[in-house]
Amino acid sequence: MAFPPSDRHRSLKADPTSRVHRIAVVIPRYGLLGGAENFVFELTERLARKPEFQVHVLANQWRRKSSAIRFHKIPVWPFPRWMRPVSFAAGAGRRLRREAFDLVHSHERIFGCHLFTFHGIPHRVWVRRVREKPMSLFDVATHWVEKRGMHSGDLQLLMPVSHLAREELIRAYPFLAPRVEVQHPGIETDRFDPADADQRRSRVRRDLGLQNSDILLLFVGMNFEVKRLQAVLDALRHLNRTGEHAFHLGVVGKGPIGRYRRMAAEMGVGDRVFFAGAVADVTDYYLAGDVFTMPSVYDTFGIAVLEAMAACLPVVISDRVGARDLVKDGTSGFVVPDPANGPRLARAFAALSELSMRRRMGEAARSTALRQSWDRVEKEIARRYGASLRQRWG
């Protein structure tokens, strides 16, 4: 999909530094619940404050915050289901052609853009390797939109959120390799270092009935199956058998809680597992925790890992979590191969049974997280916007 030139573009080509640049940010749901949605919201709100950018958001649903952002409604056909990705891509394409923006930054599969932050992996790979299911009509349509966008002549830079995702992208689209650069998400570090952190930690642990000596494992996520909550329960069962340490598990997020509560009871650890459900702000649970775990089958990044690190928690993750880019194994946590193996995961938890070890690793984790502030990510993206604008119109 080629974006047509306009008088606006011709004036920019004459002097690319003399005017405000109209930036289109494309995402189906802006500022709503979800890792990609939070990434886009935090980044875009900061970019909108820069005087050189006039930011427009093309979305189907949104939560408004900054008055500097202009919103454009992109319709989506809910039925049949396979029309959802196609209708959003087509609607975004029509709006982009009509408005003639200076730069298009998409966070969703559409037919064409200049910069593409890729929050997942190639859809066909996700369906066949991670979900281990045959392609449905919806999956075929999603893959078709993705493939058209990847072959668009306008695409200048593709930004996966981790090296794990980068590997899959280049394997699926090798011709794009020179245009692929990893861009990790950012973190609002101050949120996890409040003045009343000790009081908030004590309050949550008191509500859960935990003693100071109890070790609280924390699991945060909405897809219990992909993030392998069952493996964590199995590891807790192995720890419970030894009786050496008082490990408990807090589960935060939306999922089939009833099924996993029954699973925990069958494993004999039902009295050591707490389900908080979906909560608006997970901060207090991070502050109350001692160790964070995400042994996923596959996670392109896993923003909860970075949040836990910012809260000074050592992390135990699988080697299929993209946030492994930021975890130094044995220093700020453990990266575990084949974490579906309960005893192996239990050994990683047991290694963190000593308070001194947790504190040392937690401090290393926070030090890493502090280098991933949203302000830093905003500067990196603004630099890439400038480079793209110069490449196209300078």
Describe the structure.
This protein has 394 residues and is α/β, with parallel strands linked by helices. Helix content is 42%, strand content 16%. The protein has 2 domains: 201 residues, 3-Layer(aba) Sandwich (Rossmann fold); 182 residues, Rossmann fold. A 6-stranded parallel β-sheet has the order 5-3-1-6-7-8, sandwiched between helices. It has a 6-stranded parallel β-sheet with strand order 11-10-9-12-13-14, with helices on both faces. About 3% of the residues have low confidence.
Element layout with pairings:
Blueprint: H1 7-14, E1 21-26, E2 29-30, H2 35-47, E3 53-59, E4 61-62, E5 70-73, H3 83-99, E6 103-106, E7 115-118, H4 123-130, H5 137-150, E8 157-160, H6 163-172, H7 197-207, E9 215-220, H8 229-242, E10 247-252, H9 257-266, E11 273-277, H10 283-288, E12 291-294, H11 303-310, E13 315-318, E14 333-336, H12 342-350, H13 355-370, H14 374-393
Parallel strand pairs: 1-3, 1-6, 2-4, 3-5, 6-7, 7-8, 9-10, 9-12, 10-11, 12-13, 13-14
Helix pairs in contact: 2-14, 3-5, 8-12, 11-13
